[in-house]
């Protein structure tokens, strides 16, 4: 009986493994990998759909869309891109906005950076990495 069961179980296990590996090879968490449908400025970098951002980041995006008011004095100031994680542009091209981090007493590590060309980037690690924010 075990001799008949083992090949079937092994086959089922291999199929499950293949499905798991195929599902995980898409570049990571759903909505976070660059895709062919991404705008040119976002190609080659991680992406995130605006609706999948943390609630606080979505609130910051609404404030940006509305032109303020902003809760932090540094919101809307020039982002200099010293880390060179974003494409190089002339000074003043990028502007940064704080994304509130629950439990933090200061500005925390989360930001949204916008570009003059309509680009929107999100970082949750104080500029060490960015995701291009995709809006529908």
TrEMBL record:
Ranges that cross the membrane: none
Q: Does the keyword Signal apply?
A: yes
**Any one Pfam family match given in the protein's UniProt record, by short name:** Ribonuclease
What is the annotated signal peptide range for this record?
Answer: 1-27
Q: Name one GO molecular function term.
A: hydrolase activity
Cite the entry's keywords alphabetically.
Hydrolase, Nuclease, Signal
Checking Gene3D superfamilies in the record gives:
Microbial ribonucleases
Q: Which InterPro entries match?
A: N1-like, Ribonuclease/ribotoxin
- Protein known as: Ribonuclease N
């Amino acid at each position: 009986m075990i001799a008949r069961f083992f090949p079937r179980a092994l086959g089922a296990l291999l199929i499950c493994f293949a499905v798991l590996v195929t599902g995980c090879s898409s570049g990571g968490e759903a909505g976070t990998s660059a895709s062919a449908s991404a705008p040119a400025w976002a190609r080659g970098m991680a992406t995130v759909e605006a609706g999948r951002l943390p609630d606080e980041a979505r609130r910051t995006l609404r404030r940006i869309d509305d032109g303020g008011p902003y809760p932090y004095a540094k919101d809307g100031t020039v982002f200099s891109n010293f880390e060179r994680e974003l494409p190089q542009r002339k000074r003043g091209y990028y502007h940064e906005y704080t994304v509130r981090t629950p439990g933090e007493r200061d500005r925390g590590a989360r930001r949204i950076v916008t570009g003059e060309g309509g680009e929107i980037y999100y970082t949750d690690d104080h500029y060490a990495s960015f995701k291009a924010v995709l809006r529908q």
